């Protein structure tokens, strides 16, 4: 790896905005003829005219001047490398410069700030290999020293003069070049291979491409305000350092009214309606949801990158809903499909990653987020740090009149707890003065998902006409069913209340929960 080839793509799996690469493309894949659709291109926003990027074939690569086969490519660019992310200051900080400049070109893949630093202080030019249409739709980088625009493809047709244009613009093979495409994935990696084949050895790929640059900087390279807005629907992909920085100190939750002094319900309090029995609730304690308590279920069968290995545990199942816990190590894979036939809700206990809709819209998820994958969703999973989640899958008919195209994933930040609306004191309270708060984050057809909080107090519940699965984020409560079975719940527990459950709620410490409620009318 004395030349730039080993350095340029030492780990092509790092060649995107998070290190979630698919591995180096086979050189046999560069060209327009194959039908492989890149469903999981993170942050890709080419626009309506360019719907999906297709991975080209051997013929197209030959037209671009390539002459290596797949085995040679894999041998030259092995899948290896550290996926960890630095926690350094910004590009113009002296410490950042001192830590960055000596590492290139050997490091091979540059974050957005590293690329900005290389351009400003190490004489690197930015080579933009996007098509003219992409640049017109997405925007351009307009720095004091202009980028070099040489498209690798125009639409689905390869630019047959790519190599000759590169030689004309960079006659010196020692030229310092940062290669950029839309998202830092397929075409930037292809361009790096082609530049290496021509003997360029100071070549670097920009992770995240223009989409990441545009999220961090404006066109002239000035840093944007990167304060992350509440992620109610989706967000433009940002660097993981930025995401974690902004997510680490969420706004303080609005304090609920001071809880009243709590007085336990009278001993032997009975439900208001006479019910002799009810189905039991399903309960999984926080301890039962730990990594070492969830049985292994093996590796994913269809994988794009990494070696994602799963664990799975069911907590409850009937003909309408299932609930449980799931873990998976780092990796990338397509979602169940071709399209989901159920709606899934899950709460992220641990992990970091993203879901990518079929058109490239990216939804980042972090610990404390809850996520909805509606029926009909098609997309890609990328797990950056191993995930541990609790989940509920809801089987239901299609919702009349609801037919979005595409169906999008929904990620809701824990900041949603700050936005809950007060519902007042429960009118059926027979102990204390329980003040309730609620936020509906998803309410489509028979599936309702949201967040709920309540101060100490107690009340009797009526027989449920719906099913509910909830995860306790904070607080303590006791649920006593009509059979007299007592279940204490606290932070980290997963509870499923089946249809027909009937009993009593007693909240000892203000509780916060995230929930999914299902109501199938056709049962």
UniProtKB/TrEMBL annotation:
Region of interest (Disordered), residue spans: 250-269
Xref: InterPro entries: Rhodanese-like_dom, Rhodanese-like_dom_sf, RmlC-like_jellyroll, RmlC_Cupin_sf, UGlyAH_Cupin_dom
Descriptive protein name: Rhodanese domain-containing protein
Gene3D superfamilies cross-referenced by the UniProt entry: Jelly Rolls, Rhodanese-like domain
Protein origin, superkingdom: Eukaryota
Domain Rhodanese: 120-222
SUPFAM superfamilies, alphabetized: Rhodanese/Cell cycle control phosphatase, RmlC-like cupins
């Amino acid at each position: 790896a004395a030349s730039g080839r080993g350095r340029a793509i030492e780990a092509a799996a790092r060649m995107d905005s998070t290190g979630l690469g698919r591995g180096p493309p086979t050189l046999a894949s560069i060209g327009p003829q194959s039908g492989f659709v890149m469903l999981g291109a993170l942050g890709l926003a080419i626009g309506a005219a360019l719907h999906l990027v297709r991975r080209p074939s051997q013929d197209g690569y030959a037209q671009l001047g390539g002459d290596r086969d797949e085995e040679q490519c894999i041998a030259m660019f092995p899948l290896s490398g550290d996926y960890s992310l630095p926690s350094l200051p910004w590009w113009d900080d002296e410490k950042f410069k001192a830590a960055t400049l000596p590492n290139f070109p050997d490091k091979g893949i540059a974050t957005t700030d590293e690329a900005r630093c290389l351009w400003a202080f190490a004489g690197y030019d930015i080579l933009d290999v996007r098509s003219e249409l992409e640049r017109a739709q997405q925007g351009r980088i307009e720095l004091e020293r202009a980028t070099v625009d040489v498209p690798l493809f125009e639409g689905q047709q390869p630019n047959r003069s790519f190599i000759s244009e590169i030689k004309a613009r960079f006659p010196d093979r020692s030229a310092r070049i940062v290669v950029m495409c839309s998202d830092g994935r397929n075409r930037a990696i292809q361009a790096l291979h082609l530049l290496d084949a021509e003997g360029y050895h100071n070549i670097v790929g920009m992770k995240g491409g223009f989409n990441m640059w545009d999220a961090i900087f404006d066109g002239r390279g000035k840093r944007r305000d990167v304060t992350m807005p509440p992620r109610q629907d989706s967000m433009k992909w940002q660097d993981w350092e930025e995401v974690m920085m902004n997510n680490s100190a969420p706004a303080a939750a609005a304090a609920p009214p001071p809880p009243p002094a709590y007085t336990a319900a009278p001993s032997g309090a009975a439900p208001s309606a006479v019910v002799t029995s009810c189905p039991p609730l399903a309960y999984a304690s926080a301890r039962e949801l730990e990594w070492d308590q969830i049985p292994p279920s093996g590796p994913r069968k269809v994988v794009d990158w990494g070696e994602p290995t799963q664990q799975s545990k069911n907590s409850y199942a009937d003909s309408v809903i299932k609930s449980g816990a799931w873990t998976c190590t780092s990796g990338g894979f397509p979602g169940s499909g071709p399209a989901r036939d159920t709606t899934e809700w899950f709460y992220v206990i641990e992990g970091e990653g993203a879901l990518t809709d079929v058109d490239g819209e990216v939804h980042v998820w972090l610990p404390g987020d809850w996520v909805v994958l509606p029926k009909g969703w098609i997309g890609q999973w990328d797990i950056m740090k191993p995930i541990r989640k609790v989940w509920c899958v809801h089987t239901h008919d299609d919702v009349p009149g609801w037919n979005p195209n595409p169906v999008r994933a929904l990620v809701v930040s824990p900041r949603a707890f700050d936005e809950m609306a007060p519902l007042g004191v429960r009118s059926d309270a027979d102990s204390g003065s329980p003040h309730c708060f609620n936020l509906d984050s998803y309410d489509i057809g028979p599936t309702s998902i949201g967040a709920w909080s309540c101060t100490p107090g107690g009340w009797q519940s009526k027989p449920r006409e719906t099913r509910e699965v909830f995860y306790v984020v904070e607080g303590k409560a006791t649920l006593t069913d009509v059979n007299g079975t007592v279940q204490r719940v606290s932070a980290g527990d997963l509870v499923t209340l089946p249809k027909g459950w009937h009993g009593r709620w007693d909240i000892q410490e203000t509780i916060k929960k995230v929930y999914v409620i299902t109501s199938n009318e056709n049962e």
